[in-house]
Amino acid sequence: QVQVVESGGGLVQAGGSLRLSCAASGNIVKIDFMGWYRQAPGKRRETVATITEDSTATADAVKGRFIISRGIDKKTVSLQMNNLKPEDTAVYYCNARGLRSSMVRFTSWGQGTQVTVSS
């Protein structure tokens, strides 16, 4: 079983910054994808940023403001969020995908962390 835990959410004023962190643990052989997603009240979950072994991608809505990066151990991922806007308010979820020790692929989600940006 693979566990994913996010941290770092909170309340910030518009224009401020927050850094989200995510750590995956358990019977992991390899993680080849990690991503951040968010869901605002009444809206569908959307992709914020993703990272693989050789590429990153960010949504147009956050491009130039958010930066995704992975830790050296490849089991952690961070999301540096700068110049935050009220429309960034949402629950942010981390997703990790890869291989378990049984050589079966997994995809695991964290419980989410709330980010609230006040105007």
Q: Key features?
A:
119 residues
Provide a count of the helices.
0
The secondary structure category is mainly beta
**Strand/helix succession:** EEEEEEEEEEE
> If you average the pLDDT, what whole number results?
96
Spans of at least 5 consecutive residues whose pLDDT stays below 50 are: none
Ends apart, CA distance between termini? 41 Å
Task: Count the beta strands.
Answer: 11
Strand content: over 45%
What does this structure look like?
The chain is mainly beta. It is about 0% helix and about 60% strand. The protein has strands at about 1-5, 10-15, 20-25, 30-40, 45-50, 55-60, 65-70, 75-80, 90-100, 105-110, 115-119. The strands form two sheets. Strands 2, 4, 5, 6, 9, 10 and 11 form a seven-stranded mixed sheet that branches. It has a four-stranded antiparallel sheet with strand order 1-3-8-7, with no helix packed on it. The radius of gyration is 14 Å and the shape is elongated. The chain starts with a strand and ends with a strand. The relative contact order is 0.33.
List the helices and strands and how they pair.
Layout: E1 2-7, E2 10-13, E3 18-26, E4 28-39, E5 46-52, E6 56-58, E7 66-70, E8 76-81, E9 90-100, E10 105-109, E11 113-118
Parallel strand pairs: 2-11
Antiparallel strand pairs: 1-3, 3-8, 4-5, 4-9, 5-6, 7-8, 9-10, 9-11
